[in-house]
């Protein structure tokens, strides 16, 4: 099956047909850029329409989208500043094809080519973060991309809070502390500043418990027994002082399990990821 796409030559003002083979057999975007005779964007528009048609046809039949990533790569090579195909592909390639690698590559291609002034630019790092968090359980990399998304005023206010949770999940509370302090300093929204400060205090508490727990482990390794209290960690040179809990709690060593506890209950900072199909759709930001 052949598709004929007609373009107008600026030289002879006549319509000349450019034969494009069935989408399955299209060559690379770089090859087509040379064959498009300067009409790259028009050809990209045409193929974008064909890509949507291809997706719609298979969505209602066999749900086999084997060539979709190839078509989207061609479209975004012919017109690298066309934002919508990147965003569409970034979502569909994971939700419909479960092809996280190609989705991430396409989104990174979008980050490279689309202007950061575009109102939906933050979608690129957001969906890349989604791929790393949801499909790869790589919370550090996910948090890194969410940090980039959070820099744009169009992005949702919950992103900084999610970043801090991801760092806590990745056992890196010290990174979360630095990030939250910077966000608190840069935001001019009182409600968000309050939420960020509360989250910062929770992360500091988590970091303090981690620090004291490491000191207890060092004590056990050196003296082959559990410390009686935190004061003994100071006496034996494990720590200089007991850190301050900005939430108002007090640290102690539990007699039951010998773990460091706090008199003030901590909030669970772990990220619960619901991997049902409905939850995936809910991750897509609203207009």
Describe the structure.
This protein has 287 residues and is mainly α. It has two domains: 1-114, no CATH class; 137-287, no CATH class. The protein is built from twelve helices and four strands. Strands 1-2 form a two-stranded antiparallel ribbon. Helix 2 packs antiparallel against helix 3 and helix 4 (83-95) runs antiparallel to helix 5 (100-113).
At a glance:
With 287 residues, the chain is mainly alpha-helical. The chain has helices spanning 29-35, 40-59, 68-78, 83-95, 100-113, 123-135, 139-150, 159-169, 173-186, 190-223, 230-235, 277-283, and strands at 2-8, 15-21, 251-253, 260-262. It is elongated and about 75 Å long.
Mean pLDDT: 80
Straight-line N-to-C gap: 38 Å
Radius of gyration, whole Å: 27 Å
Order of helices and strands: EEHHHHHHHHHHHEEH
Task: Label the overall shape.
Answer: elongated
Task: Give the number of helices.
Answer: 12
How many β strands by DSSP?
4
Strand content: 5-15%
Class from secondary-structure proportions = mainly alpha
Strand numbers in spatial order across the main sheet: 1-2
Low-confidence runs (pLDDT<50, min 5 residues)?
A: 1-21, 276-281
**Main sheet properties:** 2 strands, antiparallel
- What's the number of domains? 2
Helix residue percentage: 55-70%
